[in-house]
Design goal:
It contains 20 helices and nine strands. It has 490 residues and is mostly helical. The chain has three domains: 8-87 and 248-323, Rossmann fold, CATH 3.40.50; 90-244, HUPs (Rossmann fold), CATH 3.40.50; 346-489, Arc Repressor Mutant, subunit A (Orthogonal Bundle). It binds glutamic acid (GLU).
Length: 490
């Protein structure tokens, strides 16, 4: 009998930023596959990148997946028989497994300094050949290894890749994928800080967690042959692999926040219903059949088969998503509609937070929606708004906004004091006058000159919508939309 008695699948996001639509996409397909086959769906957090991993990002990933209705059977917050489910808590396991490979001769210690490796690469580049480690330490005599270990010389552990022949695997969607072994580098498994690389941790965990099918995005397909070599080195049975097509922009480039929002939290804030987003993602590369586009996750489970996935490069078309959302909005019952508007748009918490700021510009409650629309809206219309201050040109504003939003992307604690500190530091960095940057930002975020204090307003609008408006405005300026007149006047 096969090692895998049961379907067990996982998603393994790295918590390095906002929860990504690509994570939801891969999660949906894994979840549907698991449930269709009466199997289990695991959440594993791949947080071994000590510099980039953030606890806040992990929490947001979990919250967003649950918002979408995706629940895992085992995970960091739930535990389970294969835990811990956070890689940073499993480092001893990776070290033990590295020792096994060193003993069996499938791996070796490499004491090369980064200067040496940079030098090797530079020479290879000069010679016009692919850069790779030159395997200097692959056959070091045992005595030399021991001497270096005794001197505590920093080192990494590398996998001995086969030097001839080829490695292949059967992809459930793509068929046979094969690569010449000569094109594969001696992969680092354990870094000098004792942390594993993605390859080692991923393979060890998938094995120990008894993952039967690795269903992940296409961007990892080049790693899979390396993983196959690792499974063989350990003498382990391999899971089945399926690489889902990457979500793309209309121009077929990989989706990125520079073209369209990619954070799940943005779509939630923008009033997309979770069932719309799930249905939309289900249509990405997979077809239900008979041209049917609207269906539930339960209906998808019924029909799901890898055979119906096409590799054309599904376009993450937000116009289509909005159209699908409209369909689901119309299906809401009266109670669901009232609940949504009350809880998501005019929520008690939001109204309480707004109170100190909105009353000042009102003498009758009828002015509430008009005066404060920017607290509730999505994209703004800047027609007639003079965004570009005297002495600046459109390119200056675009540069300023794009630079600022990069800084804001890293700000997870979105309160007015931190916002003020970030914007002021940025103002000094680019040498703008306070008046110019603050007024521009106020206009970009609210579309008006007379809003409550800038940083409080920015805090209230929220991380998702504020960053979206800054990017959206920069994009509108670059396309000359709506703010054409001011651009011409400059
Ligand atoms: N940590 C990887 C990611 O961020 C996991 C890829 C995989 O599923 O193997 O997506």
């Amino acid at each position: 009998m096969s090692y895998f008695k049961k379907v067990r699948v996982r998603i393994a996001p790295s918590p390095t930023g906002d929860p990504h639509v690509g994570t939801a996409y891969v999660a949906l397909f894994n979840y549907v596959f698991a449930k269709k086959h009466g199997g289990e769906f695991l959440l594993r957090i791949e947080d071994t990148d000590q510099v980039r991993a953030k606890a806040s990002s992990e929490a947001m990933i979990m919250k967003s997946l649950r918002w979408l209705g995706i629940e895992w059977d085992e995970g960091p917050d739930k535990g389970g028989p294969s835990g811990p489910y956070r890689q940073s808590e499993r480092t001893a396991i990776y070290r033990e497994h590295t020792e096994l490979l060193l003993k069996s001769g499938h791996a070796y210690r490499c004491f090369c300094t980064s200067e040496r490796i940079d030098g090797v690469r530079a020479k290879q580049r000069e010679a016009g050949v692919t850069t790779a480690y030159d395997r200097h330490c692959r056959e070091l005599p045992a005595g030399e290894v021991d001497a270096s270990l005794n001197k505590n010389i920093h080192h990494v552990v590398r996998l001995k890749m086969p030097m001839s022949g080829s490695t292949s695997f059967m992809d459930e969607i793509r068929g046979k994928v094969e690569i010449e072994n000569s094109r594969m580098d001696d992969q680092v498994l354990l870094k000098s800080d004792g942390y594993p690389t993605y390859h080692l941790a991923n393979v060890v965990d998938d094995h120990l967690m008894k993952i039967s099918h690795v269903i992940r995005a296409e961007e990892w397909i080049n790693s899979t042959p390396k993983h196959v070599v690792l499974y063989d080195a350990f003498g382990w049975e391999k899971p089945k692999f399926a690489h889902l097509p990457l979500l793309r922009n209309a121009d077929k480039s990989k989706i990125s926040k520079r073209k369209n929002p990619v954070a799940l939290t943005y779509y939630q804030r923008a009033g997309i219903l979770p069932e719309s987003l799930m249905n939309f993602l289900a249509n990405m590369g997979w077809s239900f059949g008979n041209d049917i586009e609207f269906f539930t996750v339960a209906e998808m489970m019924d029909k799901f088969d890898f055979k119906n996935i096409h590799l054309g490069g599904p376009v993450f078309d937000t116009v289509k998503l909005t159209w699908m959302n409209q369909h689901y909005m119309h299906k809401l019952t009266e109670d669901q509609f009232v609940d949504y508007v009350r809880n998501e748009i005019f929520s008690t918490d939001y109204l309480r937070a707004l109170k100190p700021f909105v009353l000042e510009r009102m003498s009758r409650f009828e002015q509430f929606t008009d005066n404060n629309a920017f607290f509730f809206n999505g994209a703004l219309n800047y027609t007639g708004v003079e965004i570009i201050p005297k002495g600046k040109i459109a390119a200056d504003i675009m540069g300023m906004l794009n630079g600022l939003v990069e800084k804001l992307d890293d700000l997870y604690d979105w309160d007015h004091e931190r916002l003020k500190a970030v914007v002021e530091a940025y103002k000094d960095e680019i040498g703008w006058k306070p008046k110019d940057i603050f007024m521009t930002l106020r206009l970009v975020l609210t579309g008006r000159k007379d809003s409550p204090p800038l940083f409080e307003t920015m805090g209230l609008i929220g991380r998702e919508m504020a960053r979206f408006r800054i990017r959206d405005c920069a994009q509108k300026i670059s396309q000359g939309i709506e703010i054409k007149d001011q651009i011409k006047n400059n």
